[in-house]
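Hey, I'm writing a tutorial for new members on how sequence and structure tokens pair up, and I'd like a real worked example in the thread rather than a made-up one. If someone can provide the structure for the chain below, I'll link this post from the tutorial.
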Amino acid sequence: MFTDSLLQLYHEQSSITLDLGWNPDISPEGNYLVLIVKNNDWEEPIKEFSSDDYKKVILYIEFHLNQVTTTWKQV
């Protein structure tokens, strides 16, 4: 599945969104792209990660989900 939109998670208390997609869309030569944004500011993500290794992507997502739910408080 080489599609731009794969997963989007929103943490309401911190207004943090984690977005996972494939870039470029529908290209087997692409990469997974993870963006983490605050307050829907898609122009300036607070974190960005790109890889073609799904295991690295899973580790990155798990780490940052833990960070969001334990340390990133609403400002």
